[in-house]
Design brief:
Blueprint (H helix, E strand, L loop, with lengths): L5 H36 L1 H10 L1 E7 L6 E2 L5 E13 L1 H4 L7 H11 L3 H8 L19 E7 L1 H9 L7 E11 L8 H4 L2 E3 L2 H6 L12 E3 L2 H5 L1 H5 L3 E7 L5 E8 L6 E4 L3 H18 L15 E8 L5 E7 L13 H7 L11 H4 L9 H10 L8 E3 L2 E4 L2 E4 L7 E3 L1 H6 L3 H14 L12 H8 L21 H18 L6 H12 L5 H7 L10 H12 L3 E4 L3 E5 L6 E3 L3 E5 L4 H14 L21 E7 L7 E7 L3 E8 L4 H17 L77
Parallel strand pairs: 2-10
Antiparallel strand pairs: 1-8, 2-3, 3-4, 3-5, 6-7, 8-9, 10-18, 11-12, 11-23, 13-16, 14-15, 17-20, 18-19, 21-22, 22-23
Helix pairs in contact: 4-5, 11-23, 14-17, 16-20, 18-19
């Protein structure tokens, strides 16, 4: 039992409690003071610092998928290049902000130090190019053309190049197999825009500011499939930009591969023969004007007749899509978009518009049948047709007397169609159209797919033009003010025309329908439209939406999404009329036909050929050459602006494309070993277990004529010969309207 007095013990307990209370109060006071210091006295400073902390993401672009031809040959793929990049985060940790490192790097790369520094500076409204427009946390590429020796120097002297990497990276490549550029069909890539970045912020695959996206051709149409899914790594960073840790990492997924219906071998032939035809015709003289033909642009389309799939599409002038890889220079861009170079970025297969000339007569013949004129009826093919004081001449002012519509196609007789067009215009009411006017010549053209897009899987296709009564009225509404302002009765020719247009430019006149009946006047068509129409006659009447994409294959090869041909309508005539048209077009290549001289020796019994020539007059320019042809397998349409007659300019090139497809020599003998594609390719190329596709090798196109077995080639023909060699050329003298 303790002998300490009870009062003393109580006093000590009270003292201890007081001390504890003082300590607790002191701690609370200290904590309160600290909170006051943090939240009130320096609250604004720390709020600002806290706001600077956050999460930054670095995007790793996916490897873009390849574009392959129908046999698996790469048309556009990726090649590995050594890319030297710099990390701004690491450079800014250095006392001199990395200036010394960048100077040493410039010496290794044989670049100027200021050029290297400019590459890694960040872009803003005041900073001119070059500069970096991407994330400051992203490795910034300095060059994608480093040599192996340069990369080794950087890696071996890592202590001299902190923050610098030299790594192999996939870069887009347009392979041009067999010299087939396929430029306008493939398209090109260019940097993403701020608008696209903003739009993609909430999407599954955000863009880098330095990312490349499809701008034209297949690269644009199938950009989503080819691009894949970008990888995203998210980092926690403080307000000074220092990385505090990795928050999340989503790996990149490569893009899918696109298999097309194109054949690189046929594409090489088409590109060569189109360019050669234009080169040849520039040496020839227009017999009307006395000037050499300019042949400033052209296009050719090779289509599967039964499916609408495109085997080849070439356009001139062309360009090298590799010019866009890594960023196009201002000089190159100016060249590609200048009038002087005649706009090589245009795909004239789907964007080149011109009057159709006589290749349009399949439409007029069909319209006549719909209007009640029998195909086998007799129609006067006189040497000319008169309308008041105007005279519309036949080709070479020749007449053939009473003939059928089939013969009108064979001889390309203009006057038959002049009369039919004029008669139908009058039947519809002439200048004052009847309410129940059928307008067969115009509605039939639209039912053939003219005046509207074909639906091909390429961007920026143009519609062409069918100048019916509605178009005349709309065109007048848009231009009448200018016409009325410029027009003057009894003035100059231009002023008088403007005056007449001001008063009655909305009226469809008789001469409008007469010109229209042979594809002249204000009518405009594209090569792809005419190819679609002629292919429909070949296959019995089905109009297809042309397609180039054949299948989308996942990177691992496990998923194959086929793109089936799509029928989008029928020709507006019955099966008998389709057969009649086919018979008339077959006669065009037989003795007496306008294209017979281009198909001498053709094996018509084995590979039936049909064709139609066209020579379209264009105001202020030389005539445009058209040549539309088909077999049971393929439809080929070629056009050359300011190239003269259809058979004269385009004929030899089209014949050579067919010779290459079927393996024919000049005498029509077939060697299947030489044939590139005697039948359309129906199967997809074999996909390996790892997702790869083994492509066959392509031999360069040999433009020399194929000699019959046992014969030796004449030394004269051991080099490519222009189409103007004896026996292969010679456009007939032409006066007046031409087929």
């Amino acid at each position: 039992m303790s002998n300490i007095p009870e009062t003393g013990r109580t006093q000590r307990v009270q003292i201890r409690l007081i001390v504890i209370q003082v300590l607790v109060f002191s701690l609370l006071l200290t904590l309160g003071g600290r909170l006051w210091y943090l939240q009130i006295r320096n609250g604004e400073e720390y709020t600002t610092k806290a706001a600077g902390n956050g999460v930054q993401q670095v995007v790793q672009p996916a490897v873009r998928g390849s574009i392959l031809d129908a046999r698996g040959v790469p048309l556009a793929d990726n090649e590995t290049r050594l890319v030297v990049s710099a990390s701004r985060t690491e450079l800014l940790k250095m006392k001199d902000d990395g200036v010394g490192v960048l100077t040493r790097l410039a010496e290794v790369l044989d670049m100027k130090p200021e050029d290297v520094r400019d590459k890694v500076r960040l872009c803003d409204s005041k900073t001119p190019q070059p500069c970096w427009n991407g994330s400051p946390y992203q490795p910034i590429p300095v060059t994608d053309e480093a040599t192996t020796q340069q990369a080794l120097q950087i890696r071996e002297r890592a202590e001299d190049f902190p923050g610098i990497t030299a790594e192999p990276t996939a870069v887009r490549r347009y392979a041009a197999p067999g010299k087939a550029k396929t430029a306008q069909v493939l398209g090109y890539l260019s940097p993403v825009t701020d608008e696209e970045i903003q739009k993609a912020l909430d999407g599954p695959s955000p863009y880098l500011r330095s990312d490349q996206v499809g701008r034209s051709g297949l690269e644009r149409t199938y950009d989503k499939e080819l691009r894949g899914k970008a990888g995203v790594t998210r980092y926690e960073v403080d307000n000074l930009g220092r990385v505090m840790g990795e928050a999340e990492n989503d790996p990149a997924v490569p893009g899918s591969n696109l298999i097309t219906s194109l054949d690189a071998r046929v594409q090489a032939v088409a590109e060569y023969e189109l360019a050669q035809a234009m080169k040849t015709v520039r040496q020839e003289t227009d017999k009307i004007t006395g000037r050499k033909y300019e042949a400033d642009s052209g296009a050719v389309v090779v289509m599967e007749s039964r499916t609408g799939r495109i085997v080849s599409m070439a356009s001139q002038p062309d360009y090298d899509p590799n010019d866009w890889v890594g960023g196009i220079s201002g000089k190159q861009y100016a060249k590609l978009t200048s009038k002087k170079s005649n706009y090589p970025l245009l795909n004239r297969g789907i964007q080149g518009q011109a009057p159709a000339g006589s290749v349009f007569k399949i439409v007029s013949a069909s319209a006549a049948v719909r209007a009640g004129y029998p195909f086998d009826g007799r129609y006067d093919c006189s040497s000319s047709y008169s309308l008041g004081s105007q005279t519309f001449a036949n080709f070479e002012s020749k007449g053939h007397g009473p003939i059928t519509l089939g013969d009108a196609l064979k001889y390309s007789c203009n006057t038959v169609f002049y009369r039919l067009g004029h008669q139908e215009w009058s039947r519809d009411g002439g200048i004052k159209p009847r309410k129940d006017a059928k307008n067969w010549f115009y509605t039939t053209a639209r039912d053939f797919g003219l005046g509207s897009e074909t639906g091909i899987d390429l961007p920026n296709e143009v519609k062409g033009r069918i100048p019916d009564r509605d178009w005349k009225q709309n065109f007048w509404n848009a231009n009448k003010d200018a016409w009325c302002k410029e027009g003057k009765k009894g003035g100059t020719y231009v002023q008088q025309i403007a005056y007449e247009n001001c008063l009655e430019g909305n009226q469809l006149k008789a001469y409008d329908s007469i010109n229209y009946s042979i594809g002249q006047g204000d009518v405009l068509v594209t090569p792809i439209q005419m190819a679609t129409a002629y292919a429909a006659i070949s296959n019995g009447g089905t109009l297809h939406a042309p397609t180039i994409g054949k299948a989308v294959v996942s990177p691992d090869g496990r998923t194959v999404q086929e793109i089936k041909p799509k029928a989008q309508g029928k020709l507006p005539v019955d099966a008998k009329t389709v057969k009649d048209l086919d018979k008339g077009l077959r006669a065009v290549v037989e003795p007496g036909g306008t294209a017979a001289w281009r198909f001498g020796g053709w094996p018509q019994d084995k590979i039936p050929m049909r064709a139609k020539t066209g020579t379209a007059q264009v105001y202020g320019k030389q005539t445009t050459s058209w040549f539309a042809t088909y077999t049971d397998d393929y439809t080929i349409v070629m056009t050359i602006s300011q190239g003269g007659t259809g058979s004269g300019a385009s004929g030899p090139a089209v014949r050579k494309i067919y010779d290459a497809l079927y393996g024919l020599d000049e005498q029509g003998n077939q060697d299947l070993k030489r044939a590139l594609l005697p039948k359309p390719q129906t199967k997809l190329p074999k996909i390996q277990p790892d997702g790869s596709i083994h492509a066959p090798k392509i031999k360069p196109y040999d433009p020399r004529p194929v000699q019959p077995e046992g014969e030796q080639a004449d030394p004269e023909f051991l080099v490519p010969q222009p189409a103007g060699q004896p026996g292969l050329t010679g456009s007939p003298a032409t006066t007046g309207r031409r087929p």
